[in-house]
Structure of Alanine, arginine and proline rich protein:
Amino acid sequence: MIRHLPPEALATATPAATRVAHRFVTTCLEVLNGFRPPVQLRQQLDPARSAVLLPELARATARGAPARRRSTRPGLRLRRLRVCEPHPAAIEAAAVLTGVAGRSWALALRLEHRRGNWLCTDLRVL
């Protein structure tokens, strides 16, 4: 079955949506690099989904390299970010992250605009 996107769906996102996605991915990188605990993202997560999303971040954090206490240099860096808007109140993004020794990670997420805030409703770290 072929599903057609609504005419208002954007294959590329508006600059404002791209900034929102970039800001969220940057915060996720701070968590993955050990500069923030995963629980600090709680306000940016959909309350109904935070019980699923926080363990996903914690699992990914544990998979990464141990945090270096004296270094401010991140282990993971954003290499590429692709953002689209399936409809005006939703942003979907895919980020390619590079880590130590050229190891690559991927981060896929969905943000939805609810009551004046952008909340993450889905997050996958691959």
Notes: The chain has a mean pLDDT of 85. The radius of gyration is 15 Å. Helices lie at 15-32, 50-63.
